[in-house]
Write a structure and sequence with these properties.
The chain contains 10 helices and 14 strands. By secondary structure, it is α/β, with parallel strands linked by helices. Bound molecules: 4'-deoxy-4'-aminopyridoxal-5'-phosphate.
Amino acid sequence: MKPINFNSGPAALPQQVIDNSIQALQNFQQTGLSILEIGHRTEKFKQIVEEATQRVKNLMNLENDFEVVFMAGGATQQFMQIPYNFLRPTESAGYIINGIWGEKAAVEAEQWGTVKIISNTANYQHRLIETKLNIPNNLRYLHLTSNNTVEGTQWKNFPSTEIPLIADMSSDIFSKKLDFKKFSLIYAGAQKNLGAAGVSLVVIRKDFLQTKKNPLSPILDYEKHIKAGSILNTPPVFAIYILAETLKWIELQGGLATIELENNHKAQYLYEVLEKFSDVYDCIVNKEHRSTMNVCFYLKNENLYEKFYNACSENKFIGVKGYRTVGGVRVSIYNAINKSQVYQFGEFLIDFAKTNG
Ligand code: PMP
């Protein structure tokens, strides 16, 4: 039996993306060369970047008022790069902390200007999202994390504000339809819904980009990367190739509307199983804010964890341990995890509850 990979990231990739990547590793587009050997300034690679850029714009329904850029490094680098590009020492930026990733982003921003914490759900162990916010009107931007990968919370309706909105969408990008135009800047590390680790997608509204600081170190300047078409220096060619293949796969599924239906169905099914067996499972996240990507829960009987994790291993359910600081169970069901895989895990949960309840 093939393992089912519920890791939170790097995470499961669509089989088709893996198969195409194997082919490209051996013989990229009939060149007789591996994709690993392709020059980043060749026409063939430029075409991959251009097509991927267009696919992002199509999926996000963006017109020409946005720039799309692929950058080496993870989302953590963006935590720094955003305030480095946009926050002046005399200015304040708002940060909504709905999990450790938002907190880390705020810590980076403190190096560059004043950080105003607009909400911090730490008092609720980040098990809900605070939606009633008092947002001052003199903020440079407002930053939030669309999906909290650790506790499994997710924004369902983003704050309505005139302040430029910035979202770290690392763990739920392209998991559903969204009004992406609401945002001035969106970023996401690739290793969950976009492909392999090593590259981040950054989407920036042009008028917001024009407000950036100057001068900046060229390698950290968004504008320089955009002007160079994501090839300012040698980018992570293979990671970008996989990202491009993943975008194609999303389109082939029928785009974000179809993906959203699947994701809602998968998550709803699992949460229902957990609730049905609430004598065994403790689904701690506030119902309204439950993530469709990371289903997190605890076992009511602490003594059962070892048995549970062992049973998962025996059944080849991989990566179900909760994040190291919070423990429990986390099942990451990103786009590439299909319904039948989720049902298999659901059946397992039911059996485990019946024998251990
Ligand atoms: N933001 C979110 C929402 C995440 O889940 C993670 C971790 N996967 C990060 C940022 C950090 O990403 P990276 O390790 O790629 O820097």
